Structures are given as structure tokens and as C-alpha cells.
Amino acid sequence: MSHNKAIGCSTQYHYSCAICLSLDCYWVCFTLQRERELSHQNLPVKMKMLLVVGGMLAVGASTADALGFAEFDHIANASTLYGAAGATATIDANPALGFKPNIVFILTDDQDTRLSGSSDTYDKFGSLEAMPFTKQHFIEGGAHFSNAFVNTPICCPSRTEFFSGRYYHNIGPPNDVGGCMHVNTANAVKPQGMFKFLTDAGYNTGVFGKVTNDQGGILKALAQQKAVNVIDSPLDYNNYEGLTYFHLDDDGKTYTETLDKDNPEFKTVYQTAQIGNRTLRWLETAVNKTDGSGSRVPFFAYVGPHAPHYPADPAPWYEDAFPDLSIPITPNYNHSCAKKPSHIRQNPPLSELALCWENQHFRDRWRSLLSVDDLVSDIVSFLDDNNVLNETFIFYSSDHGYKQVRSCFRLMACCRLGR
Q1: What is the largest CA-CA distance in the chain?
Q2: Euclidean distance between CA atoms 144 and 327, whole angstroms
Q3: pLDDT per residue as tens digits for the range 131-176
Q4: Burial (CB count within 10 angstroms: exposed 0-12, middle 13-18, buried 19+), residue 40
Q5: What is the mean pLDDT of residues 76-89?
Q6: 411, 360 in Cβ contact below 8 A?
Q7: Comparing C-alpha atoms, which of 142, 130, 159, 150 is closest to residue 366?
Q8: What is the C-alpha R_g of the chain?
Q9: Which of 60, 286, 323, 366 has its CA 20 to 30 A from that of 30?
């Protein structure tokens, strides 16, 4: 199976790629900047995969036309998609590309792009170095936004901002009360949120993996609000060998599936593999779905692997990967905290036992990402094999980055053995 397909921005419409800054607008922001202004002028023709890890989403302006949105002269005008008054964009039945592109959004958890695995330095790829397929498809064959930022880099706030397109003060205090890290994750399922917006725009929408930390509640809300068409996601997302999965079927039926630990579907209970296979199972029907007139129905797949979030348990078949990998010892590692506040000063220096744990955790994070890399490769290959890759935009991001043993930041010291 080939993984060498070149995927590039369409140059037919001479549009550039623009970063969404979450301007209290919809999750996709656009600009009609001409291609001659692009810094990626030599990118290959065809649709472009876009990558930003630990930053906000980016999308090509040609997608705006393809989705049927009105043209915007400036990125800030995207706020007309919806705002305080609840204004929404209309969907053009005849988009400029001649079709509505499929969309795949892959969102990892706590993934960094700074901690080098090859030297005691920071670098521009960090944990992406563990992911050769992802680097090939997105960085070498796509666009990598290295200077993009998450508004509120912690789990529930970041994810709810992603899914709603709103700043923190509009999903939590002082304007909205919520119990998931002080934000109201229900904003993610409102009509103006990403999921419901695309469903109402005629997309066949599927959700696979972690959405927010209040996973059970948010999945039920997505189903009750008819925000998506299909859900096939783990309930116990923090357990990499969790057995329960929440389902919403096309007919509106919801139920909980419990895997047989000794004979699980897809031959493993490992969560990332389960998420990848469940996504592919849905895509098998999604790529061929048509409406009553026989016209193709575009799909939107949200794929949320929990890796490399703690405990970052790797798949059994990757437990011994990267045996010599160690955390980079940068200049700010374990330095004096004499001028810091008292609750920081009181932390003792990290011991060798703590460093042992940090190295183990660092290796496990990279090991867990090998399965995400497999997931990416399999999805791209499937879309390619089914001749829909050039009609699909694929986005990859993390909800935020990760800080490990930097500048007086202490974690519990323990050393796990056996890996």
C-alpha cells in the first residue's frame, strides 16, 4: 500500500491558507489572499493536507468556496458566520469547486512539538519525529503552521474553543458557567458549533475518539441535539484498554457497547487501534453515501486519539520501541528556583529516580504516538484507495502542547520497570 501520494493546495482558484485565530467566529476562518502572497508557492497541486500541532486550526480559503460560504475580503469578516446575535452563514448549493469537500479532523491530546528526542535542545518537530507517516503526509506533502497558538492550552477549555470557535470568556466565566475546568462544554454541541454546523450544512458527520473530558455527557449531548449522524467513541477514554464504547447509529439509536476483553472486535482492546478501525469502518460507507437524488454526500470525520496523554500506555506491539530515547536536558532543567514564589521554591531538586520516571514517560509518549501514526497512514491510504483523497481536506492538531520537567516544574517521582 503506497503512502507516497502528493497532496497539495488547489492552485486553480489562487487562494492561500489562513490561520483561524478563533475570533469568536465559526471554527473555520478564511482569507482570499492571492497565491502570489503565499510563502508556500511551490507546494504541489491538488488538495493540501494541513498540520498544526499545539495550535489552532488552519484551512485553505478555497475550502470556504467549496463549503458554499460567502466570500470574505479579510479574515476578520468570518465573524459574520455567527456572532452574539446568532447570525449564521448560508450554504450555497453550487460551491465554486463544484463540490463540497470531505473533511477529516484529527485531534491528539497533549502532544508537543518542542521536546527533541535526539539532542538536549528544543526543536521544531518534537514528538512528530516519532511519526514518519504523519510527517510525510502533512509536513512534506502538506502545510505545517509552526507559529500557531491555542487560546487556552488546557484540555476542556482548548477543546471547547476548537469545537465552538469561541474565546474562553464566552464558554466559561464570567459569561457562561461550566463544570469542566470552568467551561461549559455544551457550547460544542450548539447549532453554531462545528459539529451541528456541518451536519446542518448537509455533511454526513461521524465522531470517533475523545471529544472533551466530560466524555459521557458530551457524547450524549451530541446525540440528543442531533449534532452529528454517527458516534462510535470510547467512554473510558483515559484507559487505553477501556472496554466501553458509546454508539449513535444513523437511525438515531444510542447504546453502549462493551468489548469482550478476551476476543475483542478488531483483535485488540488498545484504544488508538480501536478508534482507527472504527473510523475506517464508518468511512467504508461514508465514501459511497448518496442522497435521494443520487448526489454524493460529503463527510466530516472527527478522530480524537487520546495519545500521547498520560499515562501514554503504548500498544503491546510497540512497548519496546525507542529503547534508548531520553528526555532532553535543556538549560532550564532542574535549575535553582530561589527567586520563585514559595510554593515553587519549596520543591526539592529532581532526583535520579525522578529522572528515571521522566525518561520512561517520555519514551511512552513517543511509543503511544506510533499507533496514531498508523491511524493517520491507514486513513490516508483508505481515502486514496477509494479515490476520494483529492476531494478531502485533512487537518491534524493537538489540543495543546506539553511541559515536562522544565523550570521548577515537578512531577511525582517513580520509575516503572519492565518496558
Answers
A1: 71
A2: 24
A3: 999 999 998 889 888 788 888 999 999 999 999 999 998 998 777 7
A4: middle
A5: 32
A6: no
A7: 130
A8: 21
A9: 286
The one-character DSSP state at 189 is G
The residue type of 121 is T
Task: Quote the CA–CA distance of 406 and 347 in Å, as a whole number.
Answer: 13
| Contact in structure between 287 and 267 (CB atoms under 8 Å) | no
With cell 458549533, the residue in question is: 193
**232-260: b or e for each residue (b if 16 or more CB lie within 10 Å)?**
bbbbebeebbbbebbbbeeeeeeeeeebe
State pLDDT tens for residues 223-254. 999 999 999 999 999 999 999 999 999 999 99
Q: How far apart are the C-alpha atoms of 18 and 64, rounded to whole Å?
A: 11
**pLDDT greater at residue 18 or residue 303:** 303
Instruction: Name the residue among 399, 397, 398 with its Cα closest to residue 158.
Output: 399
For residue 338, give the C-alpha cell: 530561589
Strands (DSSP E) contained in 95-167 are 102-108, 142-144
Q: Sort strands 244-248 and 254-258 into parallel, antiparallel or unpaired.
A: antiparallel
Helix (H, G, I), strand (E, B) or coil at 244: strand
Length of the chain: 419
Beta-sheet strands, E only, within 267-339: 299-304
Q: What's at 38, amino acid-wise?
A: L
Please count the CA atoms within 13 angstroms of the CA of 234 that sit on its side-chain side.
25
